[in-house]
Design goal:
Layout lengths: L24 H15 L6 H8 L13 H11 L12 H18 L3 H7 L5 H14 L6 H32 L3 H18 L3 H9 L7 H19 L7
Helix pairs in contact: 1-2, 1-3, 3-5, 4-7, 4-10, 7-10
Length: 240
């Protein structure tokens, strides 16, 4: 197979002969991550990354051939390179996993987009996949069922974190505290309630706890609901 067709993970990072590369893949990925965290994924260009590590723009192509490969490195480097044994209880293991995904997305809001683009996982992503799948093995599911359970939890964690990030950004753009923002919306909300046309919205305003709770508590309860739903679909004898 021509070298041009070999995926980055299958290419040796160091040549068998000749001079050692001046930069490692981890250094390049870390530079791209810093840029994405600070200025967004759109700011990550080959030229910008090269400048970040002090290399010439064209020289970076000796390490990564295009932005797709750069994204593959980014998605992998932010994941843990070592994982402990998962908890024996599958529910607790999936809770641990979901909380970890939520933390990663909060730290790197671009991660869901980049990781979704990755067609072939890198070493850290592969280790994470093995860890995750091992937590749902033994529940009486075939491999497709195991994937559905694992990715349902993953999608919940990603979506929840993205919603939290979007709300925080909107509040930051307003220049108001949460209390000031709520007070500003007060007259409109009162008018909606007084119209009598939106009874469920009225109940949310008057009775719901969620808008006033700590986000982590809401996430944990939502996660438990999902885990309870998963448990209800497991074959008899494996539901716990």
């Amino acid at each position: 197979m021509p070298d041009n067709d070999v995926i980055i993970w299958a290419r040796p990072e160091r040549p068998a002969r000749g001079k050692a590369p001046a930069y490692s893949r981890d250094q390049i990925a870390a530079a791209a991550v810093r840029i994405a965290d600070a200025d967004g994924l759109e700011a990550v260009t080959m030229r910008r990354v090269a400048a970040e590590i002090g290399a010439g723009a064209m020289s970076l192509y000796r390490y990564v051939r295009n932005k797709d490969e750069l994204h593959m490195l980014m998605a992998d480097v932010v994941l843990p390179d070592t994982l402990g044994e998962p908890p024996a209880d599958w529910r607790e293991a999936l809770r641990e996993y979901a909380r970890g995904v939520r933390r990663i997305v909060h730290a790197h809001p671009w991660f869901p987009v980049v990781s979704a683009e990755v067609q072939v996982p890198g070493p850290n992503m592969m280790r994470g996949l093995e860890w995750l799948m091992s937590t749902v093995d033994g529940l009486g599911l075939d491999i497709d069922g195991m994937m559905e359970v694992a990715f349902t939890v993953q999608i919940l964690a990603i979506g929840f974190a993205q919603n939290e990030i979007a709300e925080a950004r909107a509040l930051a753009r307003s220049g108001l505290t949460r209390e000031q923002w709520q007070a500003q919306q007060g007259p409109y909300v009162e008018a909606v309630i007084n119209s009598g046309e939106f009874p469920y919205f009225t109940r949310i305003v008057h009775d719901a706890r969620i808008p006033h709770e700590v986000e982590g508590e809401v996430f944990d309860r939502a996660l438990d609901r999902v885990l309870n739903g998963i448990a209800a679909t497991l074959p008899r004898g494996t539901r716990r």
